[in-house]
């Protein structure tokens, strides 16, 4: 029977491949629905790998598949694809149909994330249970290893890998993606279905007693540390040829699909950097093993937000961070999963992922995706599902119950804040998008009670070792057993210290040199950022003022046909973010960022004002060196008498020349009218006025006389009668005035003699 079945399956596969090039997508999906319903698992098994590849594309990126990442909601094929791949749709029905059998599908180890692949090739068991009991050992050696995955694992691996598949001829920042793509919508749908915040995971439509998800042993139990940071199974160096056997724990079957989906997403999307690999990446000679895209980071943010909502839906009585076996004997696997999902499955890999992005992402506005992913993780209280108070975020106090989360994720707050500071001082803060990012970070950290929680976490980490051991007795007695409340409190403090130290050492290594967020070194970096913010504010104001002046000038010159039609970009080289309303937003963002930084680090307002005023005065001094002598008035700088005559020496030198240029300069820059001079009464005032009229100066008073205005009006009317426009008339008048000046310079002396 095997031969006819194989022959029939081959014929079916050939027809499907032929239809893929001739039939529209809707008809192909309709045909697949019938095939999935009517054909037995034995025949569907042979077409499954091809079908998965035709949907998600090949792992090497050569075959594009259905282009889920580029398929938007506006497309007529969007609904067809999302319905076909829905958790209750035909594709998952096929997966469950095959899952009921013992079918396996191979994935080359070379397509696994770098750290996982390195562990396997070194003969070390990876820390993720997802990859245990899956290895196939060919005779050719370790380099050609494959993973044998069940249908659900194979489907989710290809779906997750679709996000990071190296597309042919694609740039790092593909502008064609969006958050309404079919891929983004399906990720959100799968997360809500398999990791529900309300209710339970819907049961799979088959009874599976062969679950291949290995439950950790002991399952989610508190970990006994031989030393700080030793909590990863990979550090125990289990040899790859001694894989543990499958533990078919009945309670694990309830959520094994949820675990599989989460572990697959975390491994494929986040686990591209290990602590050792990250330390090597600090050398500029080392090439990056993996470069995430902006689209990739946005999907990771969606995952982070949903995991917070999933974890926060835990029932209040199950919130204990260190439960005993007795207290959770009747806890459902899903509730237990919610309790440990963030710390156990996500924290370390997300930290290294974000740290790499912070250090290697270009200094442009696309970093906003990374920034918001970080801010989403460090604010789990935003995803509680509770109705928040109408008060703004700035005045919303972080509840005390989140203190343990802050302490157990201390580096997410302190280390990444320090790395962000290093980025901020290297960015153009005049750009409104960059200014917005600085404001966003300052606003989040300025939430009441958050800075105190972080500072307390740092104090716990810095607790001396000898004090910690001195506080810790051999055993603890409860008050009912003769112990004291003091010893109980000491135990709580000791446990908190232990958790914080374990967290830091596990993420940064035993020999890490911790730099305090509220220490003197970082305070200096914050003051440097404040100086740059003040400089950027002044620069933005100068650009805005200049733009306003040019806009006003353009509106005046437009009467002559010389104005620019683009009044938004009114200065050379202006970017969209550096013009108009964006400059006003820049000033607003930076002002509020300064206020928030003062709140976070409890900076003295007087010192801050002095720092900014000193910066402003130093810049004003630099500008004044290029300006004539002036004083500060209510409406700005005002020229003094000295300033009005400061460049008069150059004019006097020109007018004193005996040649033609001297005569031309005397005509325009002096008022040496001999007849007027002889008629002046020789009083002291008259002599001063005569002496002043003989000084070389540029006077625009004649332009304000009624005689000049009337003459210009007549000339423009005369030009209009000759069909001359305003520009042509202006050019004729200017040319006539210049020729008159030449004539007077040449023949003034002769005219005087006559």
UniProtKB/TrEMBL annotation:
Gene Ontology biological process: ceramide biosynthetic process; glycerophospholipid catabolic process; sphingomyelin catabolic process
Name this polypeptide is given: Sphingomyelin phosphodiesterase 4
GO cellular component: membrane
Origin superkingdom: Eukaryota
Subcellular location field: Membrane
GO molecular function list: sphingomyelin phosphodiesterase D activity
Pfam families: mit_SMPDase
Keyword Transmembrane helix: yes
InterPro entries recorded: Sphingomy_SMPD4
Keyword Protease attributed: no
Membrane topology (UniProt): Single-pass membrane protein
Transmembrane segments: 704-724, 730-747
Protein keywords: Membrane, Transmembrane, Transmembrane helix
